[in-house]
Write a structure and sequence with these properties.
492 residues; alpha+beta; Beta-Lactamase; Heat Shock Protein 90; five-stranded antiparallel β-sheet; 17 strands; 41% helix; 26% strand
């Protein structure tokens, strides 16, 4: 049909003793057409289809009977095809033209097509050969990836969340535009900086410990961080850091998603102040009672001092007066430290000193209710990175609840012991009447209280403060067997 095909002068695979001797040109064409993974069709110089291979029929859905002998214009083709065929007839070749064609059922296909002139042994163009490769799936994948990337870009560019990606060596690789809105930081200027530059010096060790724990557990990390914007405004943000794994299931980077919680912090602080004022009001009677005792002594010894002429006796009376004044000063100072609003600032503080200071505040209240507070410290020098005033407020809540649970008197035991993995456990155990099982799940609900004069914020505020210190709180109680509040915190 096509005359003799011009063969290469290279290695003669179609001749020789073990070659394919006996194959004519038509058979070689058939062998070639059915061996290739691409769809191939041949068009003669009058634009009629004269050959198609099996892969072509598979790609486009037409059978040989549907297409052989028909002309190009009888099928739906882009306008550029006619011009391309005419150029091929003049000897031009075209390679890997990405275009759209249609399946027999009307489905649009993405194909890469190459056109070449088909010559006889004399070099004359006797047909056009077109080679098709179906790239619909790969292009759809590329389009989907592009759409997904554009969608992610759209989300990250317009979300109010603070999105930041940093590498395993803690170098920033991406910052969302929201950082400029919240902090005034230009995202492009942050690329390549260390994430530690945005952490206060006294918080670097704690942040690195958190990252180490994240590296070991491979679980998301939730924490709060405060930072001043370029305008000097103090902004509180809550971040969730999640590891990103490579194909070998190894952590290669981290993504941090945060949000501005400044307003929430202000609201929380208002609730804490309300709880603190409630505590102060309830403790006032006990403090007044405790101050009245030394005041009585001061009055009595002042009169004795005025009537005594003996120097030694006067010195003795003055020493007693001084001790009583120191006692009043201690009580008032501890009470005022609880009453005075404090800036939230984390610092390294000895846990036992916080507990002992708290006990001093509650000592007058305990005396009024005939309650003893017993300390049982199994460990010394436990240093916390914390807000001591906030923890003092938490411990006051627990001790006050324990004292009020024993109106007839009793003992409150405070047990402190170190746990593994830089954790410390503090237990507050009373000998009160306990709590009904059906009421346990209500504990910590804002404004829920079992007390006549309570406002129902103590446990809610306490639990929130403990969570902000990366700690946990658990309450165990049975009717008639007392209550135990178990707190776990991180220590340095």
């Amino acid at each position: 049909m096509f005359g003799e095909i011009a063969m290469s002068n290279g290695f003669p695979i179609f001749t020789g003793e073990n070659g394919l001797v006996g194959y004519d040109s038509e058979e070689l064409i058939d062998l070639f057409l059915e061996s290739t993974a691409d769809g191939i069709c041949m068009v003669d110089m009058e634009d009629r289809y004269i050959r198609v291979n099996q892969m072509y029929t598979k790609i486009f859905g037409y059978t040989e009977e549907d297409i052989i002998g028909k002309r190009l214009y009888e099928f739906l083709n882009p306008d550029i095809v006619v011009d391309t065929i005419e150029a091929v007839k003049r000897g031009k070749s075209f390679h890997n033209i990405v275009t759209q064609r249609y399946h027999k059922n009307g489905t649009e296909l993405d194909v890469a097509v190459s056109y070449s002139p088909f010559r006889n042994s004399l070099g004359e163009i006797i047909a056009i050969i077109a080679i098709y490769r179906d790239i619909t799936n790969s292009l759809n994948t590329e389009r989907e990836l592009k759409r997904t990337k554009e969608l992610y870009q759209l989300i990250t560019d317009n979300t109010s969340d603070l999105i930041l990606v940093f590498s395993k060596d803690q170098k920033i690789v991406y910052v969302s535009p929201s950082f400029q809105k919240v902090f005034g930081l230009i995202p492009e200027d942050q690329i390549g900086r260390s994430i530690l530059e945005f952490v206060k010096k006294d918080g670097v060790k704690a942040f690195q410990r958190k990252l180490k724990r994240l590296l070991e557990s491979e679980e998301p990390l939730l924490f709060q961080h405060k930072m001043r914007s370029t305008t000097g405004e103090l902004v509180y943000a809550e971040y969730n850091i999640t590891p990103i794994f490579n194909e070998n299931n190894e952590i290669e980077s981290y993504v941090s998603v945060g949000r501005n919680i400044t307003e929430r912090i202000k609201n929380d602080e208002a609730i804490r102040n309300l709880d603190r004022l409630s505590i102060i009001g309830q403790l006032a009677a006990g403090v007044a009672h405790e101050i009245r005792n030394p005041l009585t002594s001061l009055k009595g010894f002042s009169k004795l001092l005025r009537s005594s002429g003996d120097r030694a006796t006067q010195e003795y009376y003055l020493s007693i007066i001084t001790d009583e004044l120191d006692r009043i000063d201690l009580i008032v100072n501890e009470f005022m430290s609880l009453a005075k609003p404090q800036a939230i600032q984390f610092e390294e503080v000895n846990l036992l000193s916080i507990i002992e200071s708290t006990v001093k505040i509650l000592h007058p209240q305990a005396l009024l209710h005939n309650v003893q507070i017993m300390n049982n410290f199994h460990a010394k020098d436990i240093i916390l990175l914390c807000s001591p005033h906030q923890l003092k407020q938490v411990f006051v809540n627990f001790l006050k609840n324990a004292i009020e649970a024993m109106p007839g008197g009793g003992i409150v035991n405070i047990n402190v012991k170190k746990l593994s993995d830089n954790r410390v456990q503090i237990n507050f155990k009373d000998e009160g009447s306990g709590i009904d099982t059906e009421l346990m799940h209500f504990l910590g609900t804002p404004f829920y209280t079992t007390k006549d004069k309570g406002i129902g914020l103590g446990l809610t505020v306490s639990n929130k403060i403990i969570q902000e210190h990366n700690g946990t709180m658990k309450i165990e109680s049975q009717k008639g067997q007392g209550t135990t509040v178990c707190v776990e915190l991180e220590h340095i």
